[in-house]
Amino acid sequence: xxxxxxxxxxxxxxxxxxxxxxxxxxxxxxxxxxxxxxxxxxxxxxxxxxxxxxxxxxxxxxxxxxx
Length: 67
Description:
Layout: E1 4-8, E2 13-18, E3 26-29, E4 34-36, E5 45-48, H1 55-65
Antiparallel strand pairs: 1-2, 1-5, 2-3, 3-4
């Protein structure tokens, strides 16, 4: 899995970051917090192609995706 961006049902952009130690294999994160497996942040979310992510979001979360 590659790290990527997701959009929650609340309209928030987050980074989906690979985590091989997690039972879910990833966590969702912003610059302040992370949610293993995405639990606790949104009822649903979808992966967004990087070209469709606003540049302000890529600047804010890019360091998480580029790990």
